[in-house]
Amino acid sequence: MFTGLVEDVGAIVFAERRSDAVVLGVRPQRIALAELEVGESICHNGSCLTVTDVTADGYRVLAGGETLARTTLGTLTVGGRVNLERSLRVGDRLGGHWVTGHIDGTGELVSRTDLGSNLVLVFGAPSSLLRYVVEKGSIAVAGVSLTINAVDPATFSVAIIPHTRDHTTLGDLAPGDRVNLEVDILAKHVEKLVKS
Predict the structure, then answer these.
(1) Is 100 a member of any domain?
(2) Which of 3, 20, 17, 148 has the alpha carbon at shortest distance from 78?
């Protein structure tokens, strides 16, 4: 379980395709390698992956076929940047919202408007996901917990404060870039309960 509060932006130092999987080597900036353990979960642009090896220059994870089909992780290349968040520990603050690290699908940046104190990003998303998106609700975009400003039948918008722009990969996005999306898990559970 995660909160969507990105704690580091790592660099991809290794990317190798293996049949229906990709092995990624990640070098964090602030997360101490000595603190990482094989088997722990780390969110990568919103997708929960298991650490399979810790080396002198970073750590490795494997993204399997299902993950590659639902996320943008298969497009990461050496030199790319990735938002990182380690899983919650008992007693941690919950400053974002409940994020599982299980990506629901991808969206595309439609437009960005720099207003100085805020960067407004508008994303297109499938209707199958937009039905869970509500104004002033929460969504995880590339692993970042955000509050939704507005929703229409094809898009939703969020405002990014300078700290988030500078400490995540969201400030690097250009129109046409794809991002991982995880909608609010509570909305999905409520829908299922109401239907049954």
Answers:
(1) no
(2) 17
